[in-house]
Amino acid sequence: MLIYLTNLNASGLRDWVTQRVSAVLLAIYSFILVSFLFTHHPLNYHQWHTFFMQSWMQIFTLFILFSLLFHAWIGLWIMGTDYIKPVCIRFFFQFFVIFTLLTCLIVACMIIWGF
Amino acid sequence: MRQPRPVYLNLLTIKLPLAGFVSILHRITGLILFLFIPFALWILYHSLHSETDFVFLTLNLKKPFFKILLWIGLSALGYHLLAGLRHLLADLHIGTSKQGGTNSAAIVLILAITLSTLIGYGLC
Lengths: 115, 124
Known about the structure:
By secondary structure, chain A is mainly α. In chain A, 85% of the residues lie in helices and 0% in strands. Chain A has one domain: Fumarate reductase/succinate dehydrogenase, transmembrane subunit (3 helical TM bundles of succinate and fumarate reductases), CATH 1.20.1300.10. Chain A starts with a helix and ends with a helix. Chain B has a single domain, classed as 3 helical TM bundles of succinate and fumarate reductases (Up-down Bundle), CATH 1.20.1300.10. Chain B has 4 helices and no strands. Chain B is elongated and about 80 Å long. The chains are: A mainly alpha, B mainly alpha.
């Protein structure tokens, strides 16, 4: 029972697709950030702030935060079920992962939309 | 009478193939990246909060401790991205033969080591 409680995934195929779609989005986002840093080399606060406060960037970043949440959750869920055999420890591991990821999501939303 | 089958599982004597090594490292870097999310958020927070915080951050990131942290995080990201790309290519049935898997694993390792070196050079 405890195992199924933390099995939010329900469908392996959906996990598979989610993992790949989020991976592509994260790769594109990383590429955009790296290109920005390279093209604005001695970076100052105003350039950086303006870049992040554009509407498209705010929305894209929010998508990325959700992608990261799902991507990390699926990856760590797989690792948890592969390597942690005692159900009790696995349950706490998975709870810890979800709790951490959700906290990070909320904090990141406050950073992106708050300033 | 049936003889019990010998159980022999000394992990130290099993040689992991190159593709297996790349795969396990993909998982390890994934875990590292998960642990680095708070650090990334700390950077994001200070870089966007105010100009004073931005300067505070740039001064802090010049310290060796943070440079090493940054190098570990960025190297893990680069590796995870490259190894992930290899997975996506395998999904498109590219490099799925036994030799192809070994070759792509070698390419990922070489590119990742090069990238880590460049990141380290850039951070110095």
